[in-house]
């Protein structure tokens, strides 16, 4: 059995709402695709279908939050982050309203939807705003953790999730945490978030078969820069792997920490706007397949330090 992370989040919210009357869900006419339908079926009186009007939807949610409710706003990441960015900037960030945005179909793998539905630089937008906590879960345990944290947070939140579904046999090892070591720290360490953590794990397994040991730090929560810096203290080289543009996302966040370790960025090229195609074809074309990532890491490891 497999399930999209957004569907799992919809089920999780429905369960929690049975004991928390503050929880409401708003959706922008995509409930059958972004996970909100599971909440709608369980709690129809607390579900608002706002139609294809993302800006209005965010403004309504901000008003609800000002009345001490806990609204979760569902849509594709491309529509939440781009169409309604001014409402996010003013109504949520500047006004400090505790609205949680759930952006499904994030990243560069939009399948037949193509570039209009790809959200390749959404992290850049959200990480640049104050008072917004950013999450990029990679498995079901991460989703549970993010929902708990968002319900306790006084700030707005953005939960970013990919389009593809995951099986229970694809869950990451270890206990869910804001920062989770999937492989112990090594002088050469991979740092990843969201779907990129599955890519990083594939690359690490390939490198292990070739006799190269690497560390792997999964970062589902991108809001505590000091904690990330502490975890990576003493690492000699870092490789950021993410389903995001190489600019403005995880790699840029790491660069801003001013760590001594040099950083290699593996993500979508800066000139990539998204395309239609299978996940495998798009990853292979843009150097993000497991084979290509492993080769990049090995090449980076072989470079002489400056």
From TrEMBL:
Residues 3-168 form the Transketolase-like pyrimidine-binding domain. CDD domains: TPP_PYR_DXS_TK_like. Coiled coil: none annotated. It comes from the Bacteria. This is Transketolase-like pyrimidine-binding domain-containing protein. It comes from Chromobacterium subtsugae.
């Amino acid at each position: 059995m497999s399930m999209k992370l957004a569907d799992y989040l919809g089920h999780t919210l429905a369960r929690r709402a049975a004991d928390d009357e503050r929880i409401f869900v708003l959706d922008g006419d995509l409930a059958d695709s972004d996970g909100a339908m599971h909440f709608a079926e369980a709690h129809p009186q607390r579900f608002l279908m706002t139609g294809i009007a993302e800006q209005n939807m965010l403004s309504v949610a901000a008003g609800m939050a000002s009345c001490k409710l806990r609204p979760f706003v569902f849509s594709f990441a491309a529509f939440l982050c781009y169409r309604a960015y001014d409402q996010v900037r003013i109504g949520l960030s500047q006004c400090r309203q505790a609205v949680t945005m759930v952006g499904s179909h994030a990243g560069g793998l939009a399948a037949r939807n193509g570039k209009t539905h790809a959200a390749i630089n959404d992290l850049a937008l959200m990480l640049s705003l104050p008072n917004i906590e950013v999450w990029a879960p990679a498995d079901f345990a991460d989703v549970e953790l993010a929902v708990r944290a968002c319900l306790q947070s006084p700030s707005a939140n953005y939960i970013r999730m990919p389009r593809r579904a995951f099986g229970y046999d694809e869950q990451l090892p270890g206990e869910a945490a804001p920062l989770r070591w999937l492989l112990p720290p090594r002088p050469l360490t991979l740092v990843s978030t969201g779907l990129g953590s599955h890519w990083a794990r594939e690359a690490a397994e390939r490198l292990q078969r070739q006799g190269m040991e690497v560390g792997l730090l999964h970062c589902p929560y991108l809001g505590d820069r000091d904690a990330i810096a502490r975890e990576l203290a003493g690492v000699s080289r870092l490789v950021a792997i993410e389903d995001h543009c190489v600019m403005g996302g995880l790699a840029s966040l790491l660069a801003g920490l001013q760590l001594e370790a040099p950083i290699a960025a593996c993500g979508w090229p800066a000139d990539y706007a998204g395309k239609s195609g299978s996940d495998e074809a798009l990853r292979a074309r843009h150097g993000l397949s497991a084979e290509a990532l492993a080769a990049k890491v090995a090449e980076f490891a072989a470079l002489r330090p400056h």
